[in-house]
Specification:
Length: 143
Amino acid sequence: MARIESLSSTNATATLAYLSRSPYEHVFLSYIVREGTPAMQRGIRTSFDSTGNVNGVAYFGHQIVLASEEAALAGFAQTAKRYPGEHAIVGPRAGTDMQRSYATEARTRPAVSHGDRRQQPASSEFRHGPRSPGTRRRVGGCG
């Protein structure tokens, strides 16, 4: 299993280098690492493989945001158990499916967003269900 670490000054550069591989898809995570508040940065976890290379980054807050290779997903799923109450899981299908499988029956199941995020709408419905007609939740200040 991958080694999961909290964001720190010793791994921030490697974390950003991993995220820079797909800068548009990982802009939210990169923002938190670079400029997020200390409270937001405490939600960042970096996964390392057995050779010490970064193989994933995740944010655990009101939503779980994943940017990882498949090898890191089990470690992130275990980490998610300590962060109940997320409203949504955002990331590739394999990651969101694994995160969702760890949700217990007692918890409300979060909404899931996966696939090619470039083609997704700027708004999303969360576990609270649809909003009143004519209103939308705004995500990331878009729209």
